[in-house]
Amino acid sequence: MTALTLSTAAAPGLRADAIVIGVAKGADGPSVAPGAEAVDKAYDGRLAGVLETLGASGSEGEVTKLPAPSGFKAPVVVAVGLGAEPEKDAGFDPESLRRAAGAAARALAGAKKAAFALPLAEAADAGFVAEGVLLGAYSFDAYKESAKDAKDAKAKGNGNGKAPLAEAALLGGKPRDKAYKAALERAAAVAEELNRARDLVNTPPNDLNPEAFAAVAQAAAKEHGIKVQVLDEKALTKGGYGGILGVGAGSASGPRLVKLSYTSPKATKSLAFVGKGITYDSGGISLKPAGHNETMKCDMAGAAAVFAAVVAAARLGLEVNVTGWLALAENMPSGSATRPGDVLRMYSGKTVEVLNTDAEGRLVLADALWAASQDKPDAIIDVATLTGAMMLALGSRTYGIMANDDAFRSAVHEAAEEAGEPAWPMPLPEHLRKGMDSPTADIANMGERMGGGLVAGLFLREFVGEGITWAHLDIAGPAFNEGGPFGYTPKGGTGTAVRTLVRVAELAAAGELG
After folding, report:
1. Do residues 210 and 329 make contact, with C-beta atoms less than 8 angstroms apart?
2. Is the pLDDT of residue 155 over 50?
3. In what side-by-side order are the strands of the sheet with 351-353?
4. Which of 34, 38, 51, 412 has CB atoms 3.0–4.6 Å from 56's, for a disulfide?
5. Backbone angles phi and psi of 513, in degrees to 5
6. Residue 50 has what DSSP assignment?
7. In whole angstroms, what is the distance from residue 410 CA to residue 414 CA?
8. Which CA distances in Å does 11 have to 21, 180, 193, 283, 311?
9. Cβ partners under 8 Å of residue 64, min gap 6
10. How far is CA 46 from CA 86, 276, 437, in A?
């Protein structure tokens, strides 16, 4: 991870590989953002004009490098776009700061130190910039020859043969101010755990099966004082977890259900987070065609997000009890695999007719949701790369939120917006429930094709305990970025939903959720 420091030093005299400044997109061209006054002065107040000549506009994520002025100890100035210039007396929004810092950090791969002279109007802004730096500096090279042969372990995980930015000094920060230090500590805890989730999503499925994932969770739980319980095939069979067992039946790697429990002695509220953890999804007997299975290592992104959020809550010492449930299985075809037409008896006692074995995520989640309900938490949130239908509805950068309570759905949506994760509230139309009626079982795992993401949400609702507030996050679109990196988002696993869950936990701890 990139080391973070707060600095009151002036930009000209700071020894660094680069000075990062912000540029806003104004009505009459680019304008230099607050925080870069000393840099602009060294260009005789003409920095905006120089940048415009070089083609910079201040558009979000735009990166322009130019030689530093005479007298600067850093050789390069990196100007990063913040997007539209805010109105008078208004500051830059948190996402603009995060994305700009992330784009700059990624552009500075290989550098030992960079000074970030971005707008820091208050302590919270330092946290936003720090978060962007830590997330933007991330990439995954653990399986590349360049990383294997690297003498410096820090060279692992850069994506282009260069080590990630080693240190970032935030200019204008106040090293002795408690609020600034707390903002950096929070950013570090959340970003480190989010990047751990990214690592898990990016790890090839031949190295991350359910047992291996459970072992990672056990190690982290031990490190951070989190209670952990792992149910293996024998325990799942004894407990009657028919959904998880049915999905994992075709694989040589047995399924697991992991329960992580973080408790605070000052907690008055309890939350349960449930994550879909299909470590590889072939579709099972309903096999996915070529072109649709190459990235299916990411089908455990929901469980990775839940795992990371629970550990982050523990590291932050939040005054709320948080339980994470990781429903882990590998969905493979074989002679022992569940077949279309089979009926599974779930942990809740309900029976499910399996019409499509590629609709497996809802089966493992159903068992985990019912297990989570037995603790009677104040609220449950499940996270899953559940349906292609949600991707068609909302695209590749926005996830859908469904819930059995409109106010709670709104609260989760607001938490997502505060955290910087694009999300959108979706309905659960009652007329779609009839499509899952089965002549053989209590319910089928498929319903109407149109509105498939909403149908999946309605299926999950059937397995939430009576009277428990619940929300479902379908992160199928943004969980894995198949395009190029942008802002602080890398190619590959993104860690989507980690920050939303942490923000929900923070609001619950403060008594401000919903």
Report:
1. yes
2. no
3. 343-345, 351-353, 443-444
4. 51
5. -90, 110
6. H
7. 6
8. 10, 19, 31, 55, 36
9. 23, 51, 54, 55, 56, 78, 79, 80
10. 21, 53, 69
pTM tops 0.85: yes
144 is a catalytic site residue = no
User: For 294-348, what is each residue's pLDDT tens digit?
Assistant: 999 999 999 999 999 999 999 999 999 999 999 999 999 999 999 999 999 999 9
The phi, psi pair for 378, rounded to 5°, reads -70, -30
Give the span between the Cα atoms of 393 and 372, in whole angstroms.
29
- Strand residue runs (E) in 92-187: 113-117, 167-171
Does residue 372 sit in helix, strand or coil?
helix
Integer Cα distance of 431 and 447 in angstroms: 11
Give the active site residue among 186, 259, 362, 409.
362
Q: Token match 């982290």: residue? A: 220
Number of helices (H) and strands (E) in the chain: give both, helices first.
15, 20
Phi, psi dihedral angles at 190 (to 5 degrees): -65, -45
Match 């309570």 to its residue by tokens.
Answer: 405
User: Please, which residues have CB within 8 angstroms of residue 512's CB and are 6 or more apart in sequence?
Assistant: none
Rounded Cα distance, 7 and 195, in Å: 25
In the structure encoding, which two tokens stand for residue 2, read together? Answer: 């990139």
Cα(155)–Cα(106) distance, rounded to whole angstroms? 14
Radius of gyration of the chain (CA): 24
Catalytic residue among 154, 181, 288, 345: 288
Token pair in block for residue 210: 């359910």
Amino acid, res. 120: L
Contact, 162 vs 176, CB < 8 A? no
Q: Which two tokens stand for residue 503?
A: 């923000």
Enter the tokens of residue 73. Answer: 């100890």
Count Cα atoms within 13 angstroms, Cβ side, for 60.
Answer: 15
Provide the residue count of the chain. 514
Of all residues in the chain, the percent with pLDDT exceeding 90 is: 93
> In sequence order, what E strands does 206-360 have?
227-231, 256-262, 270-281, 321-331, 343-345, 351-353
Active site residue 88: no
Sequence-ordered list of residues with C-beta below 8 angstroms from that of 333, at least 6 positions apart, any chain? 250, 282, 283, 284, 285, 287
Please give the angle made by the CA atoms of 35, 103 and 309, to the nearest 5 degrees: 100
Instruction: Residue 6: name the closest of 200, 206, 182, 191 by CA.
Output: 182
- Torsion angles phi and psi, residue 489, rounded to 5: -95, 120
Per-residue model confidence as pLDDT tens digits over 341-355: 999 999 999 999 999
Question: How far is 31 from 21, CA to CA, in rounded Å?
Answer: 11
For residue 267, what are its two tokens? Answer: 């907690």
Residue 147 has pLDDT above 80, yes or no: no
Say if CB 233 and CB 335 are below 8 A apart.
no
Q: Torsion angle of alpha carbons 70, 71, 75, 81, nearest 10°?
A: -80
Identity of the amino acid at 374 = Q
Amino acid at site 346: M
User: Quick one: pLDDT at residue 139?
Assistant: 85
